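User: I'm new to structure prediction. If I give you an amino acid sequence, what do you actually give back? Let's try with this one:
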Amino acid sequence: MDITVGYKTLQYAFGFDDVSIVPSRETRDPDECDVSMELGGHKFALPVIASAMDGVVDVKFAHAMGKLGGLAVLNLHGLQTRYEDPQSVIAKILESAPEATTKVIQGLYREPIKEELVAKRVQEIKAGGVITAVSSIPQDAEHFGALARDAGADLFVIQSTVTSACHVSSKHKVLDLAKFCASFELPVIVGNCVSYDVAMDLMRAGAAGILVGIGPGAACTTRGVVGIGVPQITATLEVAQARNDFEKESGRRVAVITDGGMRKGGEICKAFASGADAVMLGSPFAGTEEAPAKGHHWGMATSHPSLPRGTLVRVGVRGSLENVLLGPAKVDDGSQNLVGSLQSAMGLCGAADIKAFHNARLVISSSFMSEGKMLQATQRVGMAR
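Assistant: Good question. You get back a string of structure tokens that encode the predicted 3D arrangement of the chain. For your 385 residues, that looks like this:
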């Protein structure tokens, strides 16, 4: 239901804490629920992607993620392509005083990107025998895309805070997304967006996948800085509807990837029940033993020279990447064995695969996270941890 106030009509929008999943009449053994995904012609055992953040993904992490069945995206505009030894640079960020962190990050990211390191990082990931994905901002997509392709990349991500297929600029060259996708040899994933119309434009332009989410990430401050964003349940539902309509229109299915705002299994399950084909995570992976920043990460726009839209956050190291993805869980708050959580939810809804899980019933449930949980809340355990 929409509400008209003055000259604007406001739409209700829902985040993860606003809805819950209703189990179905038929249930299924979780071990018989298929959670695999296809993205750009590649098949993955797990529908989980690690965000292209410097505190999360480096070569070592990409290898570990790929071997477990998921996908990691390396940021071509990050520290990995600016410094031969990025780990020592990350150490400088972690050692900085909180009030100076943004300035330190901005200074470190002024170092020019080196083309030879772009190729080297792609080749290093590829040498690990895993699917290799890298990301670039739209302005550099043509140049970096060619470098990554020639070095052996398998998937190319064009990512910015807000992406559209109809960008206007009188000062900068605008990427012709449709032309790029049509001529580029690799599948292209594009983001981020939060609405039906924009998602439909990006799909018609040739995107193989759409990233959904503006501002929900733990390290992102976009919503506070510019007031832009839509809660993730509503955003995912809108983009998923665009995917379904586009598939009827063209016969081509585009992957919907909910990006950000998920820390625990229940939130991930709700993303899939809202129509996601995959999820992209940052904070849960930043807290793994394999992540380069030792339980810290920062927003991708933190380094912006004049309007940073991210901050350094500490999540701590709580376990291995395998613990987080596949278990066994060492904690009781739903932050580990995320795939097990998804399979359990699918089983309770009788869904044999992720596409069937899209049909799960959702209800608006404002008291869902607090109902009957007073002891957990007062003792700061379980769901209240």
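You can read the tokens as a compact description of the fold. Here is one thing that stands out. The chain has one domain: 2-384.
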